[in-house]
Each structure stands twice: as structure tokens, then as C-alpha cells.
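Hi R.,

Quick one: here's the Cytochrome c oxidase accessory protein CcoG sequence you asked about.
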Amino acid sequence: MSNAITDTEAYRDTISTVDKDGKRVWVYPKKPKGKLFNYRKLVSYGLLALMFIGPFLKINGLPVLMLNLVERKFIIFGMIFWPQDFFILVLGFLAFVVFIILFTIVYGRVFCGWVCPQTIFLEMVFRRIEYWIEGDNNKQKALNRQEWNFEKIWKKTAKHSIFVAISFIIANTLLAYIIGVEKLQQIVTDNPANHLGGLASMAIFTGIFYWVFASFREQVCTIVCPYGRLQGVMLDKKSIVVAYDYERGEPRGKLHKNQVRTEGDCIDCNQCVQVCPTGIDIRNGTQLECINCTACIDACNAIMDLINKPHGLIRYASEEEIAEKKKFQFTTRMRAYTAILVVLMGVFVTLLVTRKNIDATILRTPGMMYQKKENGNISNLYNISLINKTNQAYPVTLKLLVPQGEIKMVRSGLMLPAQGITEGVFFAEIPKGELHKMNTEIKIGVFSGEQLITTKTTKFLGPAN
Ligand code: SF4
Ligand code: SF4
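And here's the predicted structure, written out as C-alpha cells:
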């Protein structure tokens, strides 16, 4: 590394948004513009549209995504997951974590800059409204410093009213992902007294979102987000991050007219620092605060255009690429993570594909022995519990498949409601001649009409021959 970078690591002792007395330093980033920002806008608006229409999208009458933590019912891509399927979700989550780690090792914090909801909402929604109402960074600073006059009052009132309204919409969307859009509509249209809990959740979520985006802002990324804080262990010299090419840029120096330039390409204009939403100087090297938003790349490229130098003084690059001019390589660590990811994904997909839509549990009633019937048959009493993971109700009948025999329900037949559970009690009656030992394995079929929907094996007690 060049001297300019390694001479001091003092910037790592503090974070840019807190002064030495521990007070918050408000970041006023300059409004970003440039090619990458335009691409990010497209990606962000696409993701926002997806997020807001998500609760209304259905597959087979079920939401694409619903995470009902209260009732412990999860619907992903129209498939219902009950607590019994929890291991599949855990495996899916593990695969997702490995994917994130692998992705981070190779591509750094691309997720933070391009996909993370915090960045998208803050940079593409709330901050853009702020620029629109209060103007660019210098105007915002001036407005905050000035006395409370008509201009300041209307601008602040308009901005914060819009912030609250958007926070309310986000909170409602989040609730729709938790309780489903139908229940949310009910809460909104019904008598408020009947939904005090739901309304309170709405108000709390709205308040939290408003606070995060109006006040807490980049502190989420620099102080709270665990993913951000794990960067130190995930990134290495081969990871592609937003990086300053110090070999090309240093020694930095101001540009002076009619002077033969002996310094590097960095003209120390500070534009990369001014646009940074987390208030850092990327020329110091990779830092925990950098969310890879690319604003500094755009800002520096614009300067390079002005001074007739090639783009890319700040660009997506690895430390190795800059220091040793090496091209990207797939390392052993990346290969190992990829192998783990492939195995996890394979198991996850297999479990998903072989998952049954109806889950049955059949248990012999505890404490009951077998009974001898007058016709010579032997009978055992069972309890059955059925879980329906589909959006379709089923009238259910049971048949003994192996060995020959009969199922007699204690009450009438079973009705399995859509997305519901039903329980029943039945006798299995088997001719004594079919039983050759005390403990016989029997196979019961669960039918809806003529359609076999699942089978279950259980034990049947009989007399020893
Ligand atoms: S250093 Fe650059 S990429 Fe990182 S947060 Fe700041 S502006 Fe964004
Ligand atoms: S924008 Fe580019 S030229 Fe200007 S200070 Fe930053 S790195 Fe140097």
C-alpha cells in the first residue's frame, strides 16, 4: 500500500458519525448522480414495486410470502409451512446464510448498496424527498441553521408529514406480510375497537420506521446491522469492494492551472467524501461504514471526465487487484463455501419437492389394549391428527391398506379444512388370521374420495399365536 494509506490508521479509532465527545455528527451527503446511481434507481424501484405488490400476489389462492410469527404459519411461494416443516425453513435459512457469506466473500457488500431495504428506502425514497423539499446538502445545512421562519416551518412540516405517511405505508405493508392482506383490510375497515392490538402494531411500526428514516438513518448500517459488523471476518484481499486505486491516485494533490502535474490522479477535490451517505473517506481504504452504495464512484468518475483522466480511480476492485494488479481468482475458501452451498441447496430442494401437502400422525390410544370382537376380529383404538398445508378442504376417509381389515370411525367422517387441522378417533379391525405376532405393522391410507392423499404406518397389537 502507498504511504498515504498506511501512515495513519487513526480513522479506524472513530466512526465518522460520532464526534470525540460521543455526540452525533449529522451527515449531509451531496445529492448523488451518475451512471451507477441511475442503475441503482432502476433496481431499487423494481424491488420497491415488488415489495408493495407482494402481499397482493397469490399462488393457488395463497400469498407469495406470509410470515405469520404469531400463529407460527409461514407461506413461501404459495406453500404453507407449519411448525412441523420448521427443519426445512431452518435448512433454507442456512443455505441463505451460506449464500450471503459466499456472495460477500466474492462481491463484498453489493447487497447493502443495491438490495438492502434500509439503503433503498433511505437513499432512494426518504433522502430523495428531502433533496426535493429542502434542496442539496448545503441548502439543508443552511435551513437547519436558520431561525424558525415560514420557509423552515413549511419545509420541515411538509417533509416530516410525507415521511410519516410513507412510514405508515411501509408499516402496513410489513403487517400485510405478517398477518395477510385480508386481515389487514379487516383491521382498516372494521370498528377500531375490535382491533386495538392490530392498530397498536401499526402505530408502533409506523413510529419505528419514521424514527429510523428521519433520524437514526445510516447508524443502522454502521452501529446496528450485524451483517455490516461481520464484514471484517468475511472480506479478504480478493473480495471485490468499492475501492480507491491508491496506486493510481497517490500522492494526491490539488490541481493548479498551468502547472506540470507530478502527483497522482486524485486531485483531492473531496467530491467522493461529500456524496458519501455514511460520511467516510473511501481513500482511507475499506471501512466498516462503507455500504458499497457506489455514490463515490459516480462522483469521482465525473471529476475524471472534467480533468480528462480515465474512469475508475474509485471502482469495484479487490485490494489484490489494486496492489498487485492481479485479476480476480476463485480461491479455495470460495470453492469450499460453494460446495457447502450446493449440498445445502440440494437437500433443501429435495425436502421441498418431497414434502407432503397433508401430514398425518396416527398413534394408538395410550393405555388401551386390543379388543376381541364377537366375529373373531381384533380391534385397536387410534387417534389421528391431520394437517392440511393446502388451500383446499378435503372430506377424508381412512382405509386399511395392509393387512386386510377395516377402519371404523368413532364419530362421523373427518373434514379437513383448508390450511387447518382436524383430529379423530377410530378403530382398526383385523381378522385374527391376518396377525402372526403380538406387534404387527399396519399401513393406513388417507383418502379424499377415491384419491389417496397420504399413507401412514403404525403398530397393531394382537394376541400372540
Ligand atoms: S465510501 Fe463510497 S461506496 Fe462506500 S458508502 Fe461512501 S459513497 Fe458509498
Ligand atoms: S473524487 Fe476522486 S479525485 Fe476527488 S478526492 Fe475523491 S478520489 Fe480524489
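The pocket of iron/sulfur cluster (ligand 1) is lined by residues 242, 275-278, 280, 282, 290-296 (CB under 6 Å).

Cheers,
M.
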